[in-house]
Structures are given as structure tokens and as C-alpha cells.
Amino acid sequence: MALIVFLRGINVGGHRTFRPSMLARDLAVFDVVNVGAAGTLVVRKPVSRTKFLAELRRKLPFKAVVSFCDARDLIRLEMENPFGAEPFGQDVVRFVSVLSKANRSKGSLPVAFPPGEKWFVRIIGSKKRLVFGVYRRHMMTIGYLGEIDGFFGAPATTRSWSTMLSVLRILKASEQANKGIRDGPSQKRGR
Questions:
Q1: Which of 3, 65, 73, 169 sees the fewest Cβ atoms within 10 Å?
Q2: What number of helices (H) and strands (E) belong to the chain?
Q3: What is the number of other CB atoms lying within 10 angstroms of the CB of residue 2?
């Protein structure tokens, strides 16, 4: 099963900058695909989590919080349609945060930061390490996304739902390619 890895706080505001595509190339033995510049990696070759994460940390040019989830958890989340059919305005972004440790929230969901009508971040729900919700496009939002850490008791790394959909496309294409290899080429019988 593929592993999805998320690096927190890289290539933001000129701090901890590097090229995740080069990291993916350095980790090619694990069949790693880079998604964007924020440090999202799809590890397509089944491997020990411990072994991969040790090698990842060895190759990173700095210390970083690393969060991860199994492909099946992200696929399951997509099938459950976490955002429903609710329409959102153009100033609202759907997101998924991945916790660096298992979910330990003691609060009930949904929850908004700050509470009330003028929220910037609204958490709709969570499944295992995945937390999903919406945020408003605003300069103050980044501070409120940081509230997720305290609410769940672990550092959270956030990506937009559109990034997660890109990851899902990679997973599905990889699955189709692997299925083709397992099934072998189709053979037509001539008469």
C-alpha cells in the first residue's frame, strides 16, 4: 500500500527552501512522486514506514515535521465525500490536515476558529490522522490553522483538497498500471 508523506513548513516565506522534486529523485528507489512545492510525496513502492522515514530524514537538508497517511485512508476519505454537496464561496478553501500522531482530540466537531460567524477555519470532521474542513482566504487564516495542533494534540500539516485530489489521481494511475502488469497483456486468439 502506498504511503503519502507531508512535510510541514517548507518553502514558506523564504524559510527552509529546497526542491521537493530533487528529494523525490533522491528517493527514487522507493518510487516516490512529488506533488507541488510544499513537500507532498507519494511513496508508491510498498516499504517499511520506519525504513522510508529514516531515509527521508537523512536526505532532508533540515529538520522538519513529517506527517503521513496510508493511501487507503485518503481513498476512503474521498469515497465518504467529506465536504458533501455544500456549496462554498470563492473565498473558502476545502482542506485536509494530516496529524503527525494519532488523533487525540477531546473536543466535539464541527468546531470553528475563532468561534462564531466570523470564523477563519472550520473543522468539519476527522478520521484517524486526517482532519478535514474549510478555511477562508485571509491573512489571519494561517494563525487559526495553527489552532488545529492544540485542538488535536499533535502538529498538523495542511494541504488543500485540490492537492489531495492530485495525490488521489497519482494513486489511481499507479493502481491501474500495477493492475495491467499483474493481468499481463491481453492476447487475441486468431483463427
A1: 169
A2: 6, 9
A3: 22
